[in-house]
Amino acid sequence: MVFKNIKLVACTIALATVSVSCVLEEDLNQVNPNFETEASFWQNDEDALLGINAAYSSLLTDGTYMRSTPLLLDLKSDDARSYSPWDAMYNVGRFNSSVSNAAIYGWAFETYYQGVYRCNQVLANVPNIEFEDTALKDRILGQAYFLRGLYFFHLVNMFKNVPLPLDTENLYYPQSTQEEGWAQVMSDMQMAVDLLPWSYDGISGADGNSKGRATKGAAYGYLGKAYLFTYDYQSAKTAFEQVINSGEYALVANYADNFTEANENNSESIFEVQFDREVGGVALGWGGAPLASWGKTSARAITYAPRGFGWTDVQPTWTLFNEFQEELTVDGEVDPRLDATIAYNKDGGMTIYGQDFATFYAGSPSDLNDLFCKKYQNTETMVNEFDWRSGINERLMRYADVLLMYAECLNELGQTSDVYTYIQMVRDRVNLPDLSTTMPGMSQAEMREQIGHERYLEFALEGHRFDDIRRWGWLQDSAKLAWLADRDDELQSYVAGREFFPIPQLEVDSNPNNIEQNPGY
């Protein structure tokens, strides 16, 4: 993890045959007036707003949510599989990422730290700026704490023991324990809670009426999630209650509206990454220094798209397909989340990208009888994904997630009978039967299994399933691990320790603070 401050000093020394002049060192250190420097930039509230916007932009590049992070979160789970010809992608779900080849996971590692560094610049410089609007100053600092906490969340969750830079002064930082990492995530999210508004609607100021900025609800959501991931169920419950009791959020009536461009930033969205086909240029943000030609679009859709419409590097598992059909709705229909999540040869027909599924794949029996991703695809509005430019926002946290995480906290705290209410709120949207009637009086252990089932179907291909598997200890339970491997044969390759990605070898080699590689690599 190297942060580079590059100073370009241009020196011209004229040698005359007749005389030699004395030149002082300070005369040689001239600032190029065509370049903005850190010292000249952080002057006013407009600079501060530009600075926090740059911190958000690290969510839009290839290492994060443009492409890499979703598949890194999805592929190790039993709801996704990959037959990608690219070994770095193919091996993610087989727990075989190479230490010597940091493609994909290394890009994520690098970009999370880029985001951290940008947040640290805001936190270091904005307090020294005199604002006319002090509330705007608080909101900018709150967003910086939230985003730094979010980037740290990904680093600790995916790479375990990582450096935790909290300033911009040094090139290298020592490795921290996972416990220290989670503590820092919680600290940042608590600071964000204290500084952020519930909404930007009606706010007067340069950030007023903004969509997509971090809010108090998002900070409480991730604070609760960090507590949940560290098994502090009481603190997690308290944080989630703030979100639930705020009155700011509600489930949308149509489940599929959470994954389309037309229904972004809806009442269910707690935090989402903003993509847009109409903003910026048409080039993709692959990484490095940003260019004016970069757009603000996602390559997730082409990466996950059905064959013939994109690259098909990620596909749903048959286990997921079958589990959607285990329980019918009160009207005797298949769970409607199936058709919002998976493209398949449906009885009665299914249209994708203006094509009938069965007709399009009629000449390819293997594809005709296969499963493809439909969630987060432009199947209703585009003819294919081959321009690489999806404008669909990535929903990182939905209100449904908070409800089911809250239900989990209640169960772990021994309040199992109260869990039914919150699970049923999510089930009611898709017209599933009342669980308190069909499965009354469940024990705590039985309810744990039910919560696993509910989360599996509600959040399929949304990057949550493997996090759940890992934190529930299923990989260390031989019976559960065998069950998972039967559901998705990629999990047969699991090696202890490889639930985390390796720390990129460049970081291990270059950091003088004796960075230790994760176990299993």
From TrEMBL:
It is found in: Cell outer membrane. Residues 268-521 form the RagB/SusD domain. Its main location: membrane. Residues 1-22 form the signal peptide. Keywords: Cell outer membrane, Membrane, Signal. GO terms for cellular component: cell outer membrane. It holds the Pfam family SusD_RagB. Residues 96-228 form the SusD-like N-terminal domain. InterPro entries: SusD-like_N, SusD_RagB_dom, TPR-like_helical_dom_sf. Belongs to the SusD family. This is Starch-binding associating with outer membrane.
